[in-house]
Specification:
InterPro entries: OxRdtase_Mopterin-bd_dom, OxRdtase_Mopterin-bd_sf. Pfam families: Oxidored_molyb. It comes from Cryobacterium mannosilyticum. The chain is mainly β and 197 residues long. It has one domain: Sulfite Oxidase, Chain A, domain 2 (Alpha-Beta Complex). Strands 1, 4, 5, 8, 9 and 10 form a 6-stranded mixed sheet that branches. Strand 4 and strand 5 form a beta hairpin. The longest helix has 6 residues. The two termini are 19 Å apart.
Length: 197
């Protein structure tokens, strides 16, 4: 297994109303990674979506930045029990990408620079529920938080919001990614405490 970075053990517990069960509020932004932090230059970054039919769609950084931008403000919940409320991001809705892709696949596998993977049902990426983001709190996304761009799926535990996003593979059958293969739940709904199998 890779390196586990600081943050898995938290810094105190502050309860707050409206949090999913088993969660505590944090004011900071813990850095959690299962390996070294990749350093990807924007000029080298590319995002692809591969369909179940073998068709691959590609976006360079410039093409990504030219797409309609949104600024979601969302709560995020880590499986290690911290929650951070009202986080501000900037990026492109997954709907914008998926509307350009012909697919009937019900599942996806997100792939990151560095080799990380996580599975996400396509229904959890559609209808304004997920983004590819490049800014956090008004600043370019730092590498330790997944920059230059990461997946943001805030209604699921945060391990589903793959850092250093490289590609999305659309697949017909669900399959476990990295943490799911190591005992984490296939979907990861924090309101149902879907932490582990």
């Amino acid at each position: 297994m890779g390196i586990i970075t600081p943050g898995f053990f938290g810094r105190g517990r502050k309860a707050a109303a409206g949090l999913p069960p088993g969660q505590h509020l944090t004011e900071d932004f813990p850095v959690l990674s299962a390996g070294p932090t990749p350093r990807i230059r924007e000029d080298d970054w590319e995002f692809t979506i591969a369909t179940e039919h073998g068709v691959t769609h590609r976006w360079s950084w410039a093409e990504f930045m030219a797409l309609p931008q949104e600024e979601p403000t969302v709560d995020i919940h880590c499986v290690t029990s911290w929650s951070k409320l009202g986080t501000g991001w900037r990026g492109v809705s997954l709907d914008t990408f998926l509307d350009q892709v012909e697919s009937s696949a019900e599942y996806s596998m997100a792939h990151s620079y560095g080799g990380y993977t996580t599975n996400v049902p396509v229904a959890d990426l559609r209808d304004g529920k997920a983004w590819v983001v490049h800014e956090f709190d008004g600043k370019p996304l730092a590498p330790e938080h997944g920059g230059p761009a990461r997946l943001l799926v805030p209604h699921l535990y945060f391990w589903k919001s793959a850092k250093w996003l490289r590609s999305l593979e659309l697949i017909r059958q669900d399959a476990p990614g990295f943490w799911e293969s190591n005992g984490y739940h296939l979907r990861g709904d924090p309101w149902r405490e879907e932490r582990y199998w």
